[in-house]
What we know:
Helix 9 runs parallel beside helix 11 (about 270-285). The chain is an all-alpha fold. The longest helix is centred in the C-terminal third of the chain and has 27 residues, at about 285-315. The chain starts with a strand and ends in a 16-residue tail after the last helix. It is built from 13 helices and two strands. The chain has helices at about 10-20, 40-50, 70-75, 120-130, 140-155, 155-170, 175-190, 195-205, 215-235, 245-255, 270-285, 285-315, 325-335, and strands at about 1-5, 65. The protein has a two-stranded antiparallel sheet.
Amino acid sequence: MVKVGKTTRSPAERAAELSAATGLPTPFIVVYEQLFEDCTEAEAFVHALLASKGFRVAENREFFSAPANEVVRAIALAPGAIDVDINQEGGEGAGLIPTAVTGGALANLKPPVTPSPEPWRALYEEAENHYGGFGDYLKDYEEALRLYKQAAILGCLDAYLRLGQMHHLGEGVRADTNAALKYYKEGARKGLLYCYWKMGEIYLYTEAIKGSEGNEGISKTEKCFELYMKACRTQLGDKNECVLKFDLLVLDAIFILSNDAPWRKFKDSKDILEIMNKIWRFFIEFREPLIRECERRIQLDEDMYKDLEELGHGDMRTPGDVSIYQQLAEILRSKGAKPNNASQPSTYIAGTE
């Protein structure tokens, strides 16, 4: 049985304090310690990782029925470790970590192995299966929500998008805009820049369109969208452009250009129209990656129709039907060729998926 917990004091002092409690058969000993920039975040990570492997004894306790090697590996994966030699002679932690030199029952404790780059992957994939009801899984928003939270703690950025979405839409939990914003803000803070866009959408449809000209909601909306646009201008094309999520931005563009987009009811508002003009000009500026994503989705649809036809379902295409991705690609191509006519998003995309 291993206790994994944080302390802002000396680990030896904390172990002695815990050992003073009555009823303990043996005193606590410090097996391993690591200094972190944020011990609360590190503790949550280690707890989530060990729990995902079935080692947790109880949800509200810090005890784990796990081999010491597994616990050490989990600590080695935690973010924000400060690399200092806490065993140097005379140092504060001198002599606390057992080694092969000191001998004893823990002398064979193996050092951490090379960390897996994605300790959250299995949790996230299981969460996606529960969320969508894929394969043999039943759709279960509550279980998906629990798994997404664990995956987020372990460093999965995409989990923050799902958590924000689920709290915004009330999937598996009571709809809560503030909670959705909290997850999006944390996702953006950790590097998933597309979360800024999602925050802008929330502020646009919950505050900006409900207030008077120049209200605080307008300011928040503009700032969030501008932060995302700035990130696109600086990071598109580099190895980290995946955090911009152009595959999802395509869907946002289609919704904004649809004839039933909520902002169109407020197009007489000077502030709202100015925000939408900026967004539209942004879409034109980045039309090439958006068109590429449209073409990718068009090809996926074409492959699906071919597969269905081979399975004996016949040609399920509707004659003369133009997909929403084809419509968006054509709009971006035509407006991009005539930038002077692309000052406002007056064009509509018909149809939904």
